[in-house]
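Technical note accompanying the year-one report. For the benefit of new consortium partners, we illustrate the data format agreed upon in the data management plan: each record pairs a sequence with a structure-token string. No post-processing was applied to the example shown here.
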Amino acid sequence: MDINEHLQDENPRAIEIARDMLSEKVKDPYLVWEAMSADGVICPVRWEQTARDVRVNESHCDDVAKEIGQLVLAKDDCALGKLVREQVEGYLIKLALVSADMDAIREELFND
């Protein structure tokens, strides 16, 4: 799942700030490892509210794991690398958005 789909409803300035923060986030090995785990998978249902939402997201995580396994067996290093990069980048941008959103609001309030 593409991180850009999840960012559609976010403040554009916050997204820009979060992307700028990415270089700092990747320096934290714990965050990188967390991003490479199931926690880092960008799921289709952003805010789980029902048992169905949970099942949809769990199924998606299973599909990602299967895709990773297939890419390993196929020795498709390029596709596997792209998948891992997108997952890590997406997860770290989502984390950065928490503080980036506050920064964007602060800019709007004090720079007008």
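Partners are asked to follow this layout when depositing records. The mean pLDDT is 88.
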